[in-house]
Amino acid sequence: MLQVIHISDTHLGPTPDFEVRGACPHARLERLVEGILGLDFTPDFVIHTGDVANDPHPDAYRLAAAQFARFPCPVYSVVGNHDAAAMMRGALVLPPAEPLASDPDRLAYRFDRDGVRFFVLDARMPDPEEPHGVLPEPQLEALTANLAAWTGPFAVLLHFPPFPIGSPWIDEFLALRNGEALHRAIVNAGPARCRGVFFGHLHRGIQIYRDGILYAAVSSPACQFSAGTRDERVAFDPECPLPFNHLTFTADGTIVKEHVLNR
Question: Could you report the per-residue pLDDT of 16-50, keeping only the tens digit for each?
């Protein structure tokens, strides 16, 4: 079995005392890492599905790199809407991987672990359109071609939720605008081979099951968003517990276990 830790939306600033929405992200990430290190197993790797930083800044990524270095395993990172691919390349230790597209301004790649192929997508939009995502056509084409050439199980990692979730503010501003195209590419490749699509951005855990495909998000340790069915504006909860997901990939499927730590 392949044991993976999924974290997201750490929103670090350039200094350890930086605060956002009433919380100190660096102190919260330190506590999150300590909790993960205290598990009764060693993960095969960690995935961070974006918004490593609250705003692109080299020092924010250096702080992230120092925390990620505490893990006894590789950390694979995804570009979020608050991130910058070039700064992530410059400061984070990115494990060996194959580029998925040739755009130097994107961080899209693939890697294999224990017979499972993982595809990391970069759907960040340039400011001021940054809250939502759009998967560039070259990446979508590359993903489609790779899925056609690969016959084994696979998983997809990105930052943005591919579909609306029934909360007006989130659905208008945070979703992947061409999520249906991504979904069709996965369905056409064969849902039975897909071990899941994993993302963040919503600052709360959520699961969507559609056409035989699992879509699963992990919440943010920085703060949690509201997701009410009538929310015209999002509310922030800086007092939320610290979350991470434990993913287990087996020969037959995927197990998602949610963990929460006290602040």
Answer: 999 998 899 999 999 999 999 999 999 999 999 99
Q: Beta strand pairing status for 242-249 and 254-261?
A: antiparallel
Q: Tens digits of per-residue pLDDT, 118-154? A: 999 999 998 767 789 999 999 999 999 999 999 999 9
Dig out the tokens for 206 from the structure. 């959520």
**Which are the contacts of 127, defined by CB distance < 8 A and separation ≥ 6?**
none
Question: What gap in Å lies between CA 32 and CA 166, rounded to an integer?
Answer: 29
Task: Locate 123 and state its tokens.
Answer: 């759907």
- 3-state helix, strand and coil shares in percent for the chain, rounded to the nearest 5: 25, 25, 50
Helices (H) and strands (E) in the chain, counts: 6, 14
Model pTM score: 0.97
Amino acid 12: pLDDT: 98
Structure tokens that stand for 194 in this block: 């897909």
Q: Could you give the CA distance from residue 150 to residue 164 in angstroms, rounded to a whole number?
A: 29
155, 2 Cβ separation under 8 angstroms: no
Candidates 94, 68, 78; CA nearest to 8 is 78
pLDDT value for 262: 86
Give me the helices (H) in the chain, please: 25-37, 58-68, 85-91, 137-149, 168-173, 179-189
* Residues in the chain where the model's pLDDT stays below 50: none
What are the structural domains, with CATH classification, of the chain?
2-261 (3.60.21.10)
